[in-house]
Amino acid sequence: MSRILKRALASAAVTAATFFSVSASQASEATGIWIDHTGRGAVEIVNCGNGLCGRVVWVQDAANSEACGMQIIGNAKPVGGGRYDNGWIYDPDASRRYSVEITPLGGGRLKVMGYAGSKFLSETMIWRRAPSNLKRCSSA
């Protein structure tokens, strides 16, 4: 094999590795728009300060449109390993706030664990990344 062909192949391998590592890191980020575990709403999670916050940006049923723009995640701080913890999540169905741990799982999935005081008393939900053409609420 010629020296030029070897260099071209090596360059292509480095380019492919860089592309796939960027794609993998983007897929494992907690920020973005996520369809919740019920499929009835979507939350946009963004960096705020040195943590994460989230607001409702889509609801399936127009009867729930008052939730558009509502902040339901706040103050989740990075704790290592890609996880965020020690923040809060608001459950509009129960009208109650819980502690939250957020963990990107890759593959367009996000683990959201709400807990009351102890993680032993928790509920784990899996959210999925929203499609890019999701139509946002008018007030989000």
List the helices and strands and how they pair.
Elements: H1 3-27, E1 32-35, E2 41-48, E3 51-59, E4 71-80, E5 83-91, E6 96-106, E7 109-116, E8 118-129
Antiparallel strand pairs: 1-2, 1-8, 2-3, 3-4, 4-5, 5-6, 6-7, 7-8
What does this protein look like?
This protein has 1 helix and 8 strands, in the order H-E-E-E-E-E-E-E-E. It has 140 residues and is an alpha+beta fold. It is globular, with a radius of gyration of 19 Å. 21% of the residues are buried. 18% of the residues lie in helices and 51% in strands. It has one domain: Lipocalin.
Protein structure class: alpha+beta
Q: Uncertain regions: pLDDT < 50 for 5+ in a row?
A: 1-27
The main sheet comes to:
8 strands, antiparallel, barrel
Main sheet strand line-up: 1-2-3-4-5-6-7-8
Q: Could you tell me the strand content as a percent range?
A: over 45%
Q: Tell me which CATH architecture applies here.
A: Beta Barrel
As a percent range, the share of helical residues equals 10-25%
CATH top level label: Mainly Beta
Strand segment count: 8
Mean pLDDT equals 82
What characteristic shape results from the CA principal axes? globular
Secondary-structure element series: HEEEEEEEE
Number of helices: 1
**Total domain count:** 1
User: Distance between the terminal alpha carbons, to the nearest Å?
Assistant: 58 Å
Summarize the structure.
This protein is α+β, with helices and mostly antiparallel strands and 140 residues long. It has one helix at residues 3-27, and strands at residues 32-35, 41-48, 51-59, 71-80, 83-91, 96-106, 109-116, 118-129.
